[in-house]
Amino acid sequence: MESAKELTQAVPFSSPFLPSTRWWSKETVAIVTGANRGIGFALVQRLAELGLTVILTARDSERGHCAAQALRAQGLHVHFLSLDVSDPASIKTFVALFRMKFGTLDILVNNAAVSFNEINENSVKHAETVINTNFYGAKLLTEALLPMFRRSPSTSRILNISSRLGSLNKLRNPDIKNILESENLSVEQIEAVVSLFLQDVKNGRWERQGWPKLWTDYAVSKLALNAYTRVLAKRYEVGRDISVNCFCPGFTQTSMTGGKGKHTAEGAADVGARLLLLPPQELPTGKFFVGSSSSSTTTFVNSKL
Question: Which residues are catalytic?
């Protein structure tokens, strides 16, 4: 992935919210993971306000039910299903229930993520949990849901919520960087890189091996997710019936940042919704997007993954 400094050109997408570009309906089904609060919750709300049927997922069933009920009280088409993306058994149960209740899927937002560091901390004590949630959780869920995506002219969409902390320019190990930059990158190679990082953590040498300096475990998890996005986008490049992109919401006021940030979860969700609902003819794949939003305008900048 290219660095944020290289994300210099705005992409002139038309507004997907105009009647002339509206391709979705109540029959359009979206899943948003990790959505009982923060950006996930705001994104569920925005998509439902725009008329989609949205499945809100959370690992805490009580909080998830309450979040979904609050949105249903507004007349929105929101359903709750329990899901802990770090648990393969939970993913299996979720997918079975989704298949039984809904059958087909149009949009998947892999938003669920964890970090155990404060803003100025950099512990890797929970590195395995971070990797299992932020990378493997998104990957395993995506692979399990792929057979259920609706193949249609409107194009199914996968959006992985990511971070510029996972940019390739944050890596200081040239050998690993070369692997991840390869045009022939495979999922197996990504997993080997992740395994190497976890081994370095276990052996206490992670600080000397050229891994990202800031929020290292979180950054590596997003580095892997970004790489997986590129591999998956390439897999579906022919035919283009599934679009796969990353979206960095930036420094957002959420529980992960201790409420600090430059913009609100609602602002980030509005940008994410605009990207998700682009007209099919304008929908890219294999891109990393950073969005900025004001009350009247939205600008995307993108880079190749």
Answer: 218
